[in-house]
Design a protein that fits this description.
Blueprint: H1 14-34, H2 42-66, H3 69-91
Length: 93
């Protein structure tokens, strides 16, 4: 049987990708601590959304350029599930 291997991107490095998502992680932690009601503050939406969008933009660019579509699909699915889990936890109380 032939072993299927998926292509993974060479660039950007892990450090760059981590740095792009770090502001979103900090915003999520602050939102859990501060628990703003009834909606999210504008600063959280701008910083967290900008961080996630820049990460997805960089990943989309490099995945399309290097033709590693499976990794791109996994990235989008992971981000979508993480946002859905955050919203479920946040509004379950």
């Amino acid at each position: 049987m032939a072993k299927m291997t998926h292509k993974s991107i060479n660039k950007p490095s892990e450090k760059i990708r981590t740095l792009l998502l770090l502001p979103a992680l900090i915003v999520l932690v602050l939102l859990f601590i501060l628990k703003p009601n009834p909606s999210y503050p504008l600063w959280a939406i701008i910083i967290g959304g900008g961080s996630i969008l820049s990460y997805l933009g960089v990943m989309t660019y490099f995945c399309i350029k290097q033709k590693c579509y499976v990794q791109l699909a996994r990235t989008y699915l992971t981000i979508f599930l993480a946002i859905a889990a955050f919203l479920m936890i946040r509004y379950s109380n």
